[in-house]
Design brief:
This protein is α/β, with parallel strands linked by helices. Helices cover 37% and strands 16% of the residues.
Amino acid sequence: MNIGIVLSGGGIRGIAHLGVLKALTDKKIKVSKITGTSAGAIVGALYANNIDPYDILQIFNKSKLIKHLRLAFNTTALLNLETAFSLLKEYIPHNSFEHLKTPLTITATNFNNGKLIYFSEGELIRKVLASSCIPGVFNPIMIDGKLYVDGGVINNFPVEPLQNCCEVIIGSSCNHLPDITSVRNIRHALERAAMLSLNHTLIQKCEFIDVLIEPKGLGETSIFDVKKAEEIFWIAYEETLSKVPKIEEAINAIKTKKASIN
């Protein structure tokens, strides 16, 4: 049974993917292939290297990832994401797509020509960092003479690589927005507008997945609010447990179909 999972971008909200993956692991639902963008690329790479999701959360809390993001003065962005390279190298020492335990595909945006690219082979960590480079916040990452930024600029929910190779597809989105009656301030307005833009294509892409896991209201959490990491993890864990019967139903439907053909 080939089960694929899509991990969206979303900054610190990407911790939700760890809660999702932990619940799936606890329920013995084995993921066969992962696709991810931005935060989903980071989570996907660590999980694909056979690290338990809760252990990844502890790695994040212990390392305080934000300290690896040095200010990039006199440059085109505020922070330099490349300083996180050594942290990821510690937990993925082989630095290779081919040596991951679970196949992984991640997205990035070619900043030179504005096109989306899928990475699934060769050197891993720089491509994960490229997938996570929010324009204007982080410096673009140079790979083979080209500049790359966050894959979420073009595709924040990369289900496409799973469509022809997975029988059941699970989507993990961490950007759900609640209804509001007022706008608190300019920052709130800008962040909500950005989330609305990211979520715009999700409805259309849902037709290509079997189960969507989208914890309610996470889109209101700032992408840098590291204090909420543990809370986000358990919210997503519980949401996933509530969706397990639906996932099992989708798996059993495929098994039944296969049995009838044989």
